Each structure stands twice: as C-alpha cells, then as structure tokens.
Amino acid sequence: MHVLLYTGFYRILPARDFNVELAIGYALECLTSIVPMFFCQIFNNSETAELTPLQTIALFVKFLVSLIIVMESIILCG
After folding, report:
1. What is the DSSP letter of 1?
2. With contact defined as beta carbons under 8 Å apart, do 5 and 31 qualify?
3. DSSP character string of 6-70
4. What would the pLDDT profile of 24-34 be if each residue is shown by its tens digit?
5. How many domains are there within the chain?
6. What pLDDT is attached to residue 37?
C-alpha cells in the first residue's frame, strides 16, 4: 500500500472498497506536493516586479491542479 501512495497508483483502487486509502493518498499529495510547490512558485515570483506571461500561466495551472485534486477527492471519497 505504501508504494501505491508514494507513486500515485492509489488512484486505481476501487473507490467503493478503499475510501480511507484514497483520502489518505489525496491528503498526502496535497500536503507534500501541490501546496508546497504552489508556495515555492509564489515566493520565487514575489521578487519579480512584474510577472511574465509564463509565470502567470504556471501559477494559474498550479492553482487549477489544486482545484482539480480537491474536486476529484470529493467525488471519489465522498
């Protein structure tokens, strides 16, 4: 099970039988990957006077990915 959580393959588990494992996987992904990287991008871009289009798109995509993960976890674990 730990390998599934580490690699992201927990998503292929059937939601009916593995609700707790899916919730743990999504929580770990959010806490160890999405949120820290979003803040790293914000802090790296904070020293820039004006954001370039690439920086803006990267921040928007990271924010969109976080929303998708939240929606996916609500659908599968709820």
Report:
1. -
2. no
3. HHTGGGGS-TTT-HHHHHHHHHHHIIIIIHHHHHHHHHHHTTSSS--HHHHHHHHHHHHHHHHHH
4. 888 888 888 88
5. 1
6. 86
Mean pLDDT throughout 52-77?
86
The tokens for 34 are: 């999405």
Q: What is the reported pLDDT for 1?
A: 65
Q: How far apart are CA 49 and CA 47, in angstroms?
A: 6
**18: which 2 tokens?**
């593995």
Provide the residue range defining the domain that includes 67: 2-77
The one-letter code for the residue type at 55 is: Q
Angle between helices 53-77 and 35-45 (to 10 degrees): 160
> pTM here?
0.68
